[in-house]
């Protein structure tokens, strides 16, 4: 491993800010986040757009991956699969819970469960994150 400084953890990013994502807690074992289904994030049927659901899950998964990195490491999503089970209606709040299913030397597999305000599962997202050495851009 090199002596590069680790990435600085930020609770939110400009993209997650634009979606209204808020972290509730972030640790090695679990990340919790939430996002309100606003009209701007909804589709023409009045439910949270699938891309917004995936954005919430990707933020939770990326945060969980980041929390499990060692000094000098970075991560990037190399695969993401979403099963949409129920809609999240405009005005409701989507809650994300991400756990690490596998942490290897080069990859991590994470699962994020998105629930609605009534506690029912709206989506399950499984991600694979590649672990790599952090390098400053040229």
TrEMBL record:
InterPro entries: ACOT13, HOTDOG_ACOT, HotDog_dom_sf, PAAI_dom, Thioestr_dom. Residues 27-138 form the HotDog ACOT-type domain. One of its GO terms (molecular function) is fatty acyl-CoA hydrolase activity. It comes from the Bacteria. It holds the Pfam family 4HBT. PROSITE patterns: HOTDOG_ACOT (PS51770). The keyword Lyase does not apply. Keywords: Hydrolase. The keyword Transferase does not apply. NCBIfam families: unchar_dom_1 (TIGR00369). Belongs to the thioesterase PaaI family. This is Phenylacetic acid degradation protein. It comes from Paracoccus halophilus. The lineage of its organism: Bacteria, Pseudomonadati, Pseudomonadota, Alphaproteobacteria, Rhodobacterales.
């Amino acid at each position: 491993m090199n002596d590069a400084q680790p990435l600085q953890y930020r609770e939110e990013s400009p993209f997650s800010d634009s979606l209204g994502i808020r972290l509730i807690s972030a640790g090695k074992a679990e990340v919790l986040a939430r996002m309100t289904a606003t009209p701007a994030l909804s589709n023409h049927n009045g439910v949270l757009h699938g891309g917004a659901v995936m954005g919430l899950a990707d933020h939770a998964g990326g945060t969980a991956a980041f929390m499990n990195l060692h000094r000098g490491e970075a991560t990037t999503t190399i695969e993401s699969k979403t099963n949409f089970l129920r809609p999240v209606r405009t005005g409701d709040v989507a809650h994300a819970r991400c756990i690490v299913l596998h942490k290897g030397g080069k990859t991590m597999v994470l699962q994020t469960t998105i629930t609605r305000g009534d506690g029912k599962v709206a989506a399950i997202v499984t991600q694979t994150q590649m672990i790599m050495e952090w390098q400053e851009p040229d």
